[in-house]
Fold this sequence. Notes:
The structure holds 2 protein chains of 2 kinds. By secondary structure, chain A is mainly α. Chain A contains 3 helices and no strands. Helices cover 68% and strands 0% of the residues of chain A. The N and C termini of chain A lie far apart (47 Å). By secondary structure, chain B is α+β, with helices and mostly antiparallel strands. The two termini of chain B are 26 Å apart. In chain B, the strands form 6 sheets. In chain B, strands 16-28-27-26-17-24-25 form a 7-stranded mixed beta sheet, sandwiched between helices. Chain B has a 6-stranded antiparallel beta sheet with strand order 8-7-9-15-10-13, with no helix packed on it. A 6-stranded antiparallel beta sheet of chain B has the order 18-23-22-21-20-19. In chain B, helix 6 packs antiparallel against helix 10 (266-285). The chains are: A mainly alpha, B alpha+beta.
Amino acid sequence: xxxxxxxxxxxxxxxxxxxxxxxxxxxxxxxxxxxxxxxxxxxxxxxxxxxxxxxxxxxxxx
Amino acid sequence: xxxxxxxxxxxxxxxxxxxxxxxxxxxxxxxxxxxxxxxxxxxxxxxxxxxxxxxxxxxxxxxxxxxxxxxxxxxxxxxxxxxxxxxxxxxxxxxxxxxxxxxxxxxxxxxxxxxxxxxxxxxxxxxxxxxxxxxxxxxxxxxxxxxxxxxxxxxxxxxxxxxxxxxxxxxxxxxxxxxxxxxxxxxxxxxxxxxxxxxxxxxxxxxxxxxxxxxxxxxxxxxxxxxxxxxxxxxxxxxxxxxxxxxxxxxxxxxxxxxxxxxxxxxxxxxxxxxxxxxxxxxxxxxxxxxxxxxxxxxxxxxxxxxxxxxxxxxxxxxxxxxxxxxxxxxxxxxxxxxxxxxxxxxxxxxxxxxxxxxxxxxxxxxxxxxxxxxxxxxxxxxxxxxxxxxxxxxxxxxxxxxxxxxxxxxxxxxxxxxxxxxxxxxxxxxxxxxxxxxxxxxxxxxxxxxxxxxxxxxxxxxxxxxxxxxxxxxxxxxxxxxxxxxxxxxxxxxxxxxxxxxxxxxxxxxxxxxxxxxxxxxxxxxxxxxxxxxxxxxxxxxxxxxxxxxxxxxxxxxxxxxxxxxxxxxxxxxxxxxxxxxxxxxxxxxxxxxxxxxxxxxxxxxxxxxxxxxxxxxxxxxxxxxxxxxxxxxxxxxxxxxxxxxxxxxxxxxxxxxxxxxxxxxxxxxxxxxxxxxxxxxxxxxxxxxxxxxxxxxxxxxxxxxxxxxxxxxxxxxxxxxxxxxxxxxxxxxxxxxxxxxxxxxxxxxxxxxxxxxxxxxxxxxxxxxxxxxxxxxxxxxxxxxxxxxxxxxxxxxxxxxxx
Lengths: 62, 805
């Protein structure tokens, strides 16, 4: 039954991993605006210039 | 025939209809925006919502201060040679079309790389190439399509916002620990005597202990800090029993686990902190985006135009930062610009609108040599002024600083704190008594009982009931156009017994006026001439009259002369018209009846024959009478203080009950002192005002509410902002605040009930972890559910179902 130790370790590290991801996403500002993206995704795709969205993405990552 | 709605902004096209591309527009501004969008293939804008636009109000030179490098540097978030980022606050953002068009700005100018909009906070982040487009051009571009950014002195200091992420981290940690600890405690809850589970119990428990560490020392740390601060200043606030609870829970559980006495209460501990933080988060979340912290600075422009003249060189226009303005500088104030400092006019004629400072709705005329004060808005043409005093010493700053000193509201102990004070004392005594009692009965159990009492008595339900009730009410109020600074205002609102109204802008609406004409009926040709002359004038009264008068043929004037402060003289085909002040229109006429004119009047004469006069009165808000009678019924006392003259006294005394105190010709200071005197006679005063001239009184009153036609441009010193559309709801809003307090009281009784049950277990020494684990979340959750449902029910009953406008 020592496998329980391993299971515990795995489950807790998975939990902690998700928690760290959460903290990082807060830090990056994912929760700063929870409204606009929901509207943005409804806009017609072809009308938005591909290149501009890419640049803004690039900027966010830096 | 029904008037068509403007294709762009949705206003009804009542004065001019501009037809373009089979669509009608209310003004050329709207048409221009349409053209701009059309030429950039952005007409999809109009498909997302009907009439989504804003009518643009573009002023030449408004963003000239963005030519100044220093100012620009302060506004930019990021800057290098090829790449800049700026954040603009754009108050007029309102719908999904706005999001779309603003995020497609890059199509309108190749220098703009991309734009990202944050709708809730109305900020637009623009990435651009400074070599191709300047910040000023960007500001002008977005202004030209109806989205004028608000750039003010305040934007310089950007530290503010960052801090509220803290609570999200804390909430995350507490929630994470809470969930995990609950799972790890499952074997404990069911007390299964299974060999393997027993085997692993210590591991589970130690993991729980580790999980609880960040909860106590990070997520819950604020409670310790606040409790410590409270104790230091001799106040037993609600955080004291909470901190005791957390501390005792933690110590007791740690001791249990370290010495293998039992499983401890880590689930309750983390749950408690989690729920408390949820309450706090809820409180912060509501209306965080309405920044009440705006001060006078946010009204001032960030830069001004300085005229520099050295001998032998032509006058140079320089853009300088406002704070660099020194005495004796010469500034250029354009039409529509705010005077940032006290100054003296040296060139041009001033028509200064002081409504922002004094509440007086009509502009005053100033000649060369006259002093003008900070806060006034120039309304006709450009003037040059010589600065008398630098920014910090100006009249307006003084007015404001004055209030900062007085800002300490009458001491108010909020309801929760006053309850918790008694509560803490009671709990501590119960804990000590039962501790002593158990010492006598069974000394080994006594410590157990002491900690158990302190644990179960931890008033998380009490701590939750107020934030949830008030937070929910804040939300409900917000949906009805009433925005409060924080929850404690509701408690104060419930205590109010005297309501003080300001008149201009509060009881009257700034936008609607009643215009009456008395005198000899004008002929058609005279009417044509009148409206044509008014059309050519820029004076606010002319524009007002022109808008109100029915449409007439537009004549080409042979002669047009406007003398500022007096009136207009216009001529067409031998017909002369004079419009304006009585002694301008008909010199000598004023002496005949020298009763001082109390109304705003515009006199008319044609061909030197006096015709008559237009009386312009502010229109009172709809439902004023009903409002007053509804406030009178539950016995609110009322007063009216107005900066205006007594012209409306007769009318107002029919509206208000006879005992109402009606005061006219009140200066801002008088208003403040009046409120103070009411408070000295034990009244809880609600002040309902508008502009800065009321702000002293607003700050002094127990609750200061600002009535605003546009909730984004409100006044400082207010506790709350009321959308003028919800004016008639005031009695209901007050009623709801009282109900809200009742809900809190009821929920306190609820939580007391839980505490009593828990105490029963604890005092008798039977508080098993599983009992605590059930009781604590149950009490918290049921309180939250109860307060939410109760406030919802009350608000629905009182305010009616919320209709989405």
